[in-house]
Amino acid sequence: MPTSSSVVFIGRLYTNHKDINLSSRLVSMYAMFGSMANARQLFDKIPNQNAFLWNVMIRGYATSGSCEGAIELYYQMEKAGISPDTFTFNFVLKACAGSLSSGEGKEIHDQIIKVGLESDLFVGNALVGMYSKCGEMGKAREVFDKMPKRDIVSWNEMIAGYSINGPYEEAIALHYKMQESGIEPDSFSYNFAFKACAEMSALVEGKAIHDHAFRSGFESVVFVGNSLVAMYAKCGELESAREVFDRMPTKDVVSWNTMIGGYAHNGSCDEALCLFNQMQSEGIKPTTVTMVSVIPVFAELAALQQAKWIHGYIIKSGFDSNVFVGSALVDLYAKCGSIETARQVFDKMFKRNVVSWSAMIDGYGMYGQGDKALEIYSQMQQSGVKPDHVTFICVLSACSHAGLVEEGWHYFDCMIRDHRITPCGEHYACMVDLLGRAGHLDEARDFIEKMPFEPGTNVWGALLGACSIHCNIELGEWVAKRVFDLDPKNAGRYVLLSNIYAAAGRWNDVVKVRTLMRERGVRKIAGYSSIEVNNKIHAFLVGDKSHPESEKIYAMLEDLGVLMKDAGYVPNTNFVLHDVEEEVKEDLLGSHSEKLAIAFGLLSTSPGTPIRITKNLRVCGDCHIATKYISKIVKREIIVRDANRFHVVKEGLCSCGDYW
Fold it and tell me: Cα–Cα distance between 436 and 541 in angstroms, integer?
């Protein structure tokens, strides 16, 4: 292969040569090696360029990434009076696909019809591919259906388009129609079919197509195997995903990233970290995608020391300048209870995109710092970065956690009016949560009834949660009927209704709810709290005595109990949702998982250092009160992350302002 300097040297020798064939070869050589500036310089000096030369140049621009240059040259070719042929249209349509220029593509399509080449197989394939990549699936299907002859490329272009743009079920339907027409799928066919199955979480169809791919020998193709792993992981079938991964004769970095991402997405943190370590031990160098996949695992664990370790690894590996990695680190530190470090990472980022800004807004929102979240949103607008639908979910959520009702309405209207973003279910759920937490239950109900589409479980769940907070039995029962119909297996919804009844002392209704759960095979999620000490996670259940330090933990709680009562603490037995005596209720409160984790933290960490606790459910109201007393007595900052937000407790005060 000649070097770029030798190519330039040869070109200079023949720039003025009168042999058109030799000049044409030189143009082809330049274009082949991507030296389009030299190719164009020589091309412009050749008199009477023929269609072959124009095609070489158009293809060169298209394959070198200068799609606009290819389209521009096509129009110059027309002005020069040179008739385009099948090769011309094939190359320029690929350029239109590469630049997502459907407007120019449609103009070229009209020209193809005029010259009678629409029925040409290669031109038809290029048209289908162009429309598919531009998201114009209706036009793509129209061309596809009119094709007098189709080959494997025709079918793959169409299936690929549906697998990316939807409707995904059409991709699967065409996969089978292709076989009915006598054309057997190739590796690309299976790749696109598995992508469509993943998007739909269509496990049954995916398994059927996998069986055919296995028998046809295509499972061993690396990118097919990667798509299979992704499909099973997206469907929650991690064992099947791992089986395919382990069987792959050859794995690339995408294979590892896909499996790690699958574990992370499904909450299998230990498996994800184990595979990440195995990846490195086998000499596979992680990429930025690896980092973006593995960072959420550390965020899920909420382990600050491990977060600092992966941050150090990222810096040593040179990934810290990547905007996506930086954004993930902002989210990581926010979820590990260090919003200050999250802000430091954010401020040091060389470049910020919409994900970066949204992560910082969401971080402040989780800590109940709504004013700071809105301040970041204002800075985002001033920077010129446009908010997307996720940004507004973060903004509305921040307003909800801080009780900023008027501001929430303002940004909801602003999203629709100024940014032309159509609200989705998550936006409506945030607004219902905002109104409900603030006690505007009737307004929240009216808001739901005016929605332009049927409310989902997240919307009804937000209202049911608000009914639980404000002990509104009548509305709670009305909402529960609807949410149970939509999501009969979600234990959290039953627990909310049961808690509403328990708070009102309606124990017979509590029993009815629990009986309904048993009949429907719904099991309550066990609440637990965890704490990281010396890079190890310690987890506690209510009344847990399995920990090696249990005796010391309970002794610590007993001592704290005396000090807390002397300081004015009175156990709030309303948060014991069992029909038992008051004395028993106090004993149950004393062994809640949050208190056990805090006591262990006091025993295992240095005086004056912060204690960071993670609770998988909403923090118990009595534990919230007790934590404030403990923080003041032991002079420690206690940071509690529950299922919805953070509580930063210092000197007897909580960052939530008791609004949660």
Answer: 30
